[in-house]
Amino acid sequence: MPRSVNTVASRARRKRMLKAAKGYWGRRSNVWTVAKNAVEKGWTYAYRDRKVKKRDFRKLWIQRINAGAREEGMSYSVFMGKIKKANIELNRKVLADLAMNHQDAFKAIVKKLK
After folding, report:
1. Backbone angles phi, psi at 53, to 5 degrees
2. Alpha-carbon span 29 to 17, nearest angstrom
3. Which terminus of the chain faces fewer neighbouring Cβ atoms within 10 Å, N or C?
4. Per-10-residue mean pLDDT, the chain, length 114
5. 17 falls within a domain
């Protein structure tokens, strides 16, 4: 009896992978083995960088808060310590936005802490 292979499923799987490789340069977009490797590596980077993005934004917020606090004569660590002690429940994202775009509100927070 001849060997049975599910050609329809195999072709669909390859087609799905090549569709994911659309827009890649050269053989990465149309040669099965090269495209498969490129797409899988891309998915690996995407998974990893979803985590890295969170780290990068936290670093950015800390830098912005530090810059705003230092303009008021206070270091970041002292500022955050006083924020916690005063039970002001603003996260770093909001504090960074205040430091960048609403300096008067940030100054009012710093004045309350001093």
Report:
1. -60, -40
2. 10
3. N
4. 89 96 96 97 97 97 96 94 92 96 94 89
5. no
